[in-house]
């Protein structure tokens, strides 16, 4: 696999949310607006890149038996960093994302890439993999957030497109998350086959 | 009275899966058949209550006592991961039939965000130990209720003739949305 292919796979062919169905909890939980989706996506991207780097360096020293627990500890360390940095510099976003920031630890996407890619590859391809998967995940979350915000509140990134009175409140609430993601995946499936 | 409020709120109003979006992976992954959904529910209930008690004690007597609250994420996930291993080993020895029933689901539970999520929420809501146990138990029942209902719906969904792009995950998500809409009817009870 060339670097270019490695970089592009995360956006479409192996997109975390639309194709692999990984990391669904934050994808549904925080995407009530496009900004929240983007914030969550970038936080996950940071954790993904850093944990990929460290795991690709250390994986040859880690015995097989304690592989998963040690991966989890490495990931948890970076999640704690993101949590504290966000609480310090973006308190409003931190408040919005709430419990989903510590829950990046159990995001199957991060552990999945650590196990499937970083532990078997050199540093450089692992960084590219982290960037690609992370940005693909961010893209998916932002798209879902934008769709929900547009239909629910008539806004896009906080800018009013049409009056809120014509919005369907259900899209901002819990059921809208499931329905919007369902149709978005169906749409992507359709694009892929065409 | 307080306990009744906690129980109803955790099962129906703030259902872990359908209102808080925790544990979506097992919700979509093991909900193809009612029987596997019931098995998963059993394993989750067991581990969730145990994990909440242990993490509660760690928070109170280690993290708070020494002022190292920032270690919460790391210590909780480690405790949950090792607890799952421990439960697996003990069940194998103590009760082979129960291990037979729950065994395959146990390794999946480490990455079930509902467990870590409920443990963290218990701390955030400042419950005492008894309330924490009731809250985690009710959350687990809420998880099980959503999972079993959804599995029942999905068994029927297999028989429906759908457009190609909607088959599988998209249809399941839309049905989950409808189920979530039904659960919204409970809001306002508490």
TrEMBL record, chain A:
Gene name of the encoded protein: rnfE
Pfam families in the record: Rnf-Nqr
Top enzyme category: translocase
EC number annotated for this UniProt entry: 7.-.-.-
Location relative to the cell: Cell membrane; Endomembrane system
Free-text function comment from the UniProt entry: Part of a membrane-bound complex that couples electron transfer with translocation of ions across the membrane.
UniProt keyword list: Cell membrane, Electron transport, Membrane, Translocase, Transmembrane, Transmembrane helix, Transport
HAMAP family per the UniProt record, alphabetical: RsxE_RnfE (MF_00478)
Protein family: Belongs to the NqrDE/RnfAE family.
Assembly and binders: The complex is composed of six subunits: RnfA, RnfB, RnfC, RnfD, RnfE and RnfG.
InterPro entries in alphabetical order: NqrDE/RnfAE, RnfE
Major site of localization recorded for this protein: membrane
Recorded topology in the membrane: Multi-pass membrane protein
Superkingdom of origin: Bacteria
Spans through the membrane: 39-59, 71-90, 96-114, 126-146, 166-188
Organism lineage string: Bacteria, Pseudomonadati, Bacteroidota, Bacteroidia, Marinilabiliales
Keyword Cell cycle on entry: no
Protein name per its UniProtKB record: Ion-translocating oxidoreductase complex subunit E
From TrEMBL, chain B:
Transmembrane segments: 6-30, 37-59, 65-87, 99-123, 129-150, 171-189
Taxonomic superkingdom: Bacteria
Location (main, coarse): membrane
Compartments reported by the entry: Cell membrane; Endomembrane system
Keywords: Cell membrane, Electron transport, Membrane, Translocase, Transmembrane, Transmembrane helix, Transport
Residues spanning the signal sequence: none
Membrane topology of the entry: Multi-pass membrane protein
HAMAP family: RsxA_RnfA
Subunit structure: The complex is composed of six subunits: RnfA, RnfB, RnfC, RnfD, RnfE and RnfG.
Protein role: Part of a membrane-bound complex that couples electron transfer with translocation of ions across the membrane.
Matches recorded under NCBIfam families: rnfA
Protein name in the entry: Ion-translocating oxidoreductase complex subunit A
Organism of provenance: Paralabilibaculum antarcticum
